[in-house]
Amino acid sequence: MYVCSCFGVTEQQVKQHAEAGACTPRQIASACKAGTDCGGCVRRIQALLGRGECPRRELLERRTDPLAAAVAPVAPALPEAA
């Protein structure tokens, strides 16, 4: 089924871009132009992406959140060879 009739983008294509790491409608637009003409498909793209289901988003939040970095486990130092 088509999501974006302006550029002929299907649900399957949006899902493939999401699996490849596109977590937001803007990232989908960068990948395939869907949502960049009339904008009528943006809500459908948002629905396909879901909320909070992007594993890359969690990684990015950990990198930018100083509190998360402070509580992240740290690997113990290896003993030095004599």
Throw out a few tags for this protein.
single chain; 82 residues; mainly alpha; two-stranded antiparallel sheet; 50% helix; elongated
Short summary of the structure?
The protein is 50% helix and 6% strand.
Ordered list of secondary-structure elements with their pairings:
Elements: E1 2-4, E2 9-10, H1 11-19, H2 25-32, H3 42-49, H4 55-64, H5 66-71
The low-pLDDT segments are: none
Give the averaged pLDDT, no decimals: 79
Shape call: elongated
- Strand content is 5-15%
Distance between the termini: 65 Å
Run of helices and strands? EEHHHHH
**Total helical elements:** 5
Number of E-state strands = 2
Helix-and-strand structural type: mainly alpha
Rg, please? 19 Å
Largest sheet report: 2 strands, antiparallel
Helix content: 40-55%
Strand order of the largest sheet: 1-2
Overview of the molecule:
It is built from five helices and two strands; from the N terminus they run E-E-H-H-H-H-H. The longest helix has 10 residues, at 55-64. The protein has helices at residues 11-19, 25-32, 42-49, 55-64, 66-71; strands at residues 2-4, 9-10. Strands 1-2 form a two-stranded antiparallel ribbon. The model has no long low-confidence stretch (mean pLDDT 79). The chain is 50% helix and 6% strand. It is mainly alpha-helical and 82 residues long.
